[in-house]
From TrEMBL:
One of its GO terms (biological process) is mismatch repair. PANTHER family: DNA MISMATCH REPAIR PROTEIN MSH1, MITOCHONDRIAL, DNA MISMATCH REPAIR PROTEIN MUTS FAMILY MEMBER. The gene is mutS. This is DNA mismatch repair protein MutS. GO terms for molecular function: ATP binding; ATP-dependent DNA damage sensor activity; damaged DNA binding; mismatched DNA binding. It comes from Methanolobus mangrovi.
Amino acid sequence: MMNKVTPAMQQFYAAKEEHKDALIFFRMGDFYESFGEDAKTIAKELEITLTTRGKDKDGDKMPLAGIPYHAIDTYLPRLIKKGYKVAICEQLEDPKKAKGIVKRGVVRVVTPGTAMDSSMFTDSSNNYLMALYGEKDEYGISFLDISTGEFLTTQFTDIAPYNRIASEAARMGPSECIMPRSLLVDSDLTERLKELKIIIHEFDGDAFDFERAEKVLSEHFKVSTLEGMGCSELQCAVSSAGAALRYAMDTQMRELSQVQSLNTYFDSEFMVLDAITLRNLEIVRNVRGEGNDSSLIGVLDETKTPMGRRQLQKWLLKPLVSADAINDRLDAVAWLHDNTLVRFDIRAHLSYVKDMERLVGRVMYGNSNARDLVALKKSLEAVPLLLESLRECKDVDLLESIMSQLSSFGELNDLAKLIDSAIVEEPPLSVRDGGMIKDGYNEQLDELFDLSKNGKQWIAKFQQKERERTGIKSMKVGYNKVFGYYLEVTKANIPQVPDDYIRKQTMTNAERFYTPELKERESAILSADEKMTALEYELLCDVNSTVASYSKQLQETAGFIGMLDVMANLAEVAANNNYVRPAITPDCRLLIRDGRHPVVENTVPGGFVPNDTEMDCSENQFQLITGPNMAGKSTYMRQIAMIVIMAQAGSFVPASHASIGIVDRVFTRVGAFDDLASGQSTFMVEMVELANILNNATPKSLVLLDEIGRGTSTYDGYSIAKAVVEYIHNKGRVGVRSLFATHYHQLTDIAGNLKRVRNYHIAVKEDGDDLVFLRKIVPGATDRSYGIHVARIAGVPHAVTTRAKEILEDIENECMISEDDRKGKKKQRSSAKYTQVILFDQDASYGETAPHPVIGELKDMDLNSMTPLEALNRLSQLKTRLLEEGR
């Protein structure tokens, strides 16, 4: 039997029916209430009290949880960050004027990717909504930040395990992703996105229909074709972009006029940094823990503006591959680096610039306040000062372009003057409380202000007069919104109250009264205050409307200021950290003198040891690096990748000299990670990452591999490591620039067979049982792993390391293989005194009849999973090995 519910609860159930996947914040007076299952969830997540009130429609006790309406900025972000959608159901009319039940309705739905309020953002990073759509291995992916108006789309081919999609998502860092059910059921895809901590929501499949998406975009941007946006022929990209915009408009329940353009981008414009590389190199966030203090951006970010911080992150996540474009950035950084006083002035002026992109977004969205306008005014006042500082700049294309663009928006000076004439310097936060508009801006407002001011002066005189008339010195005139003005008298003074006082309210320790004279004056004062507050809000809306009409110029100005901030920042960081300008070359050579790790060099006691690097595509393409753990192999490899990324982003680099041949992709396989929740061991993760590298690296790529094969048995690991070296060296007939760190120092023999492989090792100094890491990379191979030394340094008990040393000596003695024991076979040892057990299986037969390893490899080839070209390449490699062995 259905229980009869109140009209207010009928409104709640209607809102819940319309937004089934959202928590409802239901405005009732001074509180946002939640009911039923919503209340249980909200009470649990926000750690607030759960109570019951009345009964639900089924007759059961109704769970209830609520928060004060003024505290929504505190509580709402906590729910959104946990992935919830929250529908805000507001009172749509003034309760004082409502006839019967107050009308209520959902005014917006807040989701992780469509947040607008400043309270939702913990930093200045973009807050992207990602939309994904695909057909037959072709995918469109779009990113929309409604807080800044930025809107991007691209299209590409991808297949499971969806490395391309995951890499793009990792690079952009969206907080929410929408997709149709056809993709949501693909667990491989959704798991890849969940690994990146992206909240996934299903969205109406019809919104991804190409024709509907195209119509949504065309109508929003008021264009007849999407050709000007570069995506008219990219159906999947258009489908994802249209769905993203539709979702954002549906949740916000309004047009998003701050979104003024859609930019299409392609892989060919930027260096590709996949999700694994971004993680391993810690480009924008720490690999472990929160924050970015040990990341590359943590070192490079000394920007002054939020736009600059966002722009710097984009430059680091999308390094350029055009030498001309890179040099344009480097020219600007170099000029600012050399002109120290100009740089200081620019950075001083930039410190007054606020987050113009989000300020304009709030103005366009309609939730800005007077403080936002003051912040915008101060930002605009910095523009003429920036132009004055740059006036000496000559023949630097990027800086001259910024000057030209900023100069073209001269009307923004008038906009700043308008805001200055209208809004007080320190306005209140609420737009409904008045006190925002300056004296003299509006004649009618000034008259109301005088009336209100005189009324308050009258109240003060009235209080003094009544004290003298009654002899009650403690009497005071007070006010609240419910009872208006009143005379408050303590209980002890009640006998002195005159007969013309009319009782209004009884308090615990006092009584409140009014007189006809006070009541009459109250009406005049409150009328003036009410009219004044309403007029102030109206005037603020007028100023907002004027600001909104300049939104495009304001957004473009914010973008140019962000670019200038990044370049001045990079120049400042270069000067402070002794970075040099890199030379960008069209060849594949990498030449770095005294290279340093930009992050580690700031944390090493006693100073960082720099290292040289020289790579090319003819004789020194593949560096095989050996040496003990903790000696610095990984640091050395990472610093090379970081220097390349910094250079192609347009930054100076930590070295005494750097010449960088353009790199199209950086691949890394370093560190040990596992994913046991999805059934992947450390070794499986290693092999998945390795497969991505081997399948996608090109001759212009840079590959960093650390300890490949260590996650499995010694024999398997060594075999895989050797095969990987050969494969990369021979890939595409010209190979790939690579650095390969390994403990399998027997691999160093391969340099004699592969012409572009060179051996290097990290130098160490032995003094008895002591080991000193010199941190210097030098040519040549090492024949020892020093694992027991490292174990001792790490604090492993002395008994263990002593016993380990004894066991190692026994193994080495057992594995000494004399030449007489190998009659008729190729000599197994070189100049070394012994060969470690790793190379030999004690159960194997070493007689003349033992099958050649090539036969085993042929048997293991899975021809069904190989393309004809891959099979031919593999056969060619096996044939080459046989010929080299003289067979």
